[in-house]
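Repro:
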Amino acid sequence: MKKVVIFAFRGESMCFIHVLLNAIDMKEKNMEVKVVLEGESTKIIPELFSEKSTLYNLFQKAWEMDLIAGICKACAQKMGTLELAKQKNFTILEDMYGHAGMASFIKEGYEVITL
């Protein structure tokens, strides 16, 4: 089975919609897929839980499908969303000097895609 992890770095909602769409599509096509929120994408965490957001429904579907691997601790802290991420039960990734590293995913056989 093909294994893919998408590292989402950009903080624009329209970019993140495509991360979610691709992750859901890959999962529905029998691929193992995970999403990591890194860099500026960690600032959109409040939008992911706002029913008024265009991201809400897609994110809820991805969350229920267990596609979200976690968020970068250092970046979420910098963007002011770390505490909310903890409250919402995100896995906090910090294996690379406080950031979410790619090495552990590569060791597990994942292909890394950055968006």
